[in-house]
Amino acid sequence: MRLSYGLSFWSTKGQWVTNLSQPCLRGSSGLFVPPSPPLNPEKVKEFQRFITLSKKLLVMTGAGISTESGIPDYRSENVGLYARTTRRPIQHSDFVRNAAIRQRYWARNFVGWPQFSSHQPNPAHWALSTWERLGKLHWLVTQNVDALHTKAGSQRLTELHGCMHRVLCLDCGAQTPRGALQERFQDLNPHWGAEAQGLAPDGDVFLSDEQVQSFQVPSCLRCGGPLKPDVVFFGDTVDPAKVDFVHSRVKEADALLVVGSSLQVYSGYRFTLTAQDKKIPIAILNIGPTRSDHLACLKLNSRCGELLPLIDPQ
């Protein structure tokens, strides 16, 4: 299935204008959500029991919780990036070593950022924030880089793969807000404009090579080094100290709930292995199969934002 977007970003009379025309196929909140069966009342009751019995619940979320906010993912059947296109995400080593690849990445991210940064939490994010406030949720680990859990008020949170709302210098490590970098992009490219031919996960869009060639990329204000989003690109590894921290939170928990993740990436999958080793019960809420279905005592193929608000966390 091909989804066509008209996302354009250009300068006119000193002001930058963004326009996104979305297809009429479905509403934006469901555009990247695969079909799911109707809620099974018996499964809902089982899930309620699972949550009720837990006193120290650890939740791990993936891209499937944010697709309902209009953010595309990689692996969802028929609607993920891998199903819609042959394009693949950038590799860490390519970004670090090649200035032209960094130029292409930042041009695409510059166009996609206004839309990506405007996404808001959906009922699933708000439900988990409420669970934390009421003392049900011991810790939340997210593989997402969209800051939607933070926007929903979650505080007992580890962003396993970082966050697109922060930027790092590869040389000196200086950290700056992504919004501030957007202004520097605009100042360096006062007459540059582009129209994207599709959306990808994590604020990426598709641009032609011709559009990218004239795009100017700023350097670190402190040392002049190259800038990178504070996220773990494909081919990179999660900080070992962060991994150890999450392993500790898993071992403290008495139940693990996976929400919206296929667990195909080892960085998340390993925590289900830890839970299994510690005989911690696992429930999985995800549309479609996951790598850990065989480890779970309960698997639910439902929309996160449809099911989580139904559950009483007390």
From TrEMBL:
Its cofactor is Zn(2+). It catalyses: L-cysteinyl-[protein] + NAD(+) = S-(ADP-D-ribosyl)-L-cysteinyl-[protein] + nicotinamide + H(+); N(6)-[(R)-lipoyl]-L-lysyl-[protein] + NAD(+) + H2O = 2''-O-lipoyl-ADP-D-ribose + nicotinamide + L-lysyl-[protein]; N(6)-acetyl-L-lysyl-[protein] + NAD(+) + H2O = 2''-O-acetyl-ADP-D-ribose + nicotinamide + L-lysyl-[protein]; N(6)-biotinyl-L-lysyl-[protein] + NAD(+) + H2O = 2''-O-biotinyl-ADP-D-ribose + nicotinamide + L-lysyl-[protein]. Zn(2+) binds at residues 169, 172, 220, 223. It comes from the Eukaryota. Its EC number is 2.3.1.-, 2.4.2.-, 2.3.1.286. Keywords: Metal-binding, Mitochondrion, NAD, Transferase, Transit peptide, Zinc. GO terms for molecular function: histone deacetylase activity, NAD-dependent; lipoamidase activity; NAD+ binding; NAD+ poly-ADP-ribosyltransferase activity; NAD+-protein-cysteine ADP-ribosyltransferase activity; NAD-dependent protein biotinidase activity; NAD-dependent protein lipoamidase activity; zinc ion binding. NAD(+) binds at residues 62-82, 143-146, 260-262, 286-288, 304. Residues 37-314 form the Deacetylase sirtuin-type domain. The keyword Metal-binding applies. It is found in: Mitochondrion matrix. It holds the Pfam family SIR2. The active site is at 161 (proton acceptor). PROSITE patterns: SIRTUIN. One of its GO terms (biological process) is negative regulation of fatty acid oxidation. GO terms for cellular component: mitochondrial inner membrane; mitochondrial matrix. Binds 1 zinc ion per subunit. According to some authors, ADP-ribosyltransferase activity of sirtuins may be an inefficient side reaction of the deacetylase activity and may not be physiologically relevant. Interacts with GLUD1, IDE and SLC25A5. Interacts with DLAT and PDHX. Belongs to the sirtuin family. Class II subfamily. PANTHER family: NAD-DEPENDENT PROTEIN DEACYLASE SIRTUIN-5, MITOCHONDRIAL-RELATED. Acts as NAD-dependent protein lipoamidase, biotinylase, deacetylase and ADP-ribosyl transferase. Catalyzes more efficiently removal of lipoyl- and biotinyl- than acetyl-lysine modifications. Inhibits the pyruvate dehydrogenase complex (PDH) activity via the enzymatic hydrolysis of the lipoamide cofactor from the E2 component, DLAT, in a phosphorylation-independent manner. Catalyzes the transfer of ADP-ribosyl groups onto target proteins, including mitochondrial GLUD1, inhibiting GLUD1 enzyme activity. This is NAD-dependent protein lipoamidase sirtuin-4, mitochondrial.
